[in-house]
Specification:
three-stranded antiparallel beta sheet; eight-stranded antiparallel beta sheet; 37% strand; Jelly Rolls; 161 residues; 2 helices; mainly beta
């Protein structure tokens, strides 16, 4: 296995707080016209940038990122991006990709439970289960597979060293 799955990554009250915050009317989501790759250009999702190119970009840093970072303790953070995918009629696979060209690690934190999952190029699948962290080398190609059961699939994507 080339990745690590950590269930119950945060304290339950922290996981519940992050989920309720990100599902609230007060959390700003921004339209993104394609998911990952050129073949995804007819799909869309919503995102919220917490850290971009190492700089804090959001007033939600303390409430959303800090609990995760206290456990992860990265040396360097390049990006923290929140993703919200809307319910689909069928499980659509986004394009296989890596998040960045340079060396990095990825932590995907699943904010809510749904039947979407992360798919790796070798066929391994990690289900979207609330309060689960998926950690892997950023060179591994992966793709989001969108959900059909819940209105939204939310994850937090950290790229770090």
């Amino acid at each position: 296995m080339s990745f690590k799955v950590i269930k119950n990554f945060l304290k339950q009250e922290e996981a519940d707080y992050i989920e309720s915050t990100m599902l609230s009317f007060n959390f700003p989501w921004f339209y993104s016209g394609s998911v990952n790759t050129p073949e995804d250009n007819n799909r869309f999702f919503f995102s919220h940038s917490i850290i971009h190119e190492g700089n804090i970009n959001s007033t939600f840093y303390d409430n959303i990122a800090s609990p995760i970072l206290k456990i992860l303790k990265p040396n360097k953070i390049n990006r923290i991006k929140c993703n919200l995918f809307v319910k689909q009629n069928e499980q659509i696979k986004a394009g296989m990709h890596t998040d960045m060209e340079e060396e990095h690690m990825v932590l995907l934190y699943y904010v809510n439970t749904n039947n979407g999952f992360t798919l790796f190029k070798n066929g391994d699948k990690v289900p979207s289960i609330k309060n689960t962290a998926l950690i892997f080398n950023g060179k591994l190609k992966h793709a989001a597979v969108l959900q059909t059961d819940e209105k939204v699939r939310i994850n937090i994507n950290l790229n770090y060293l």
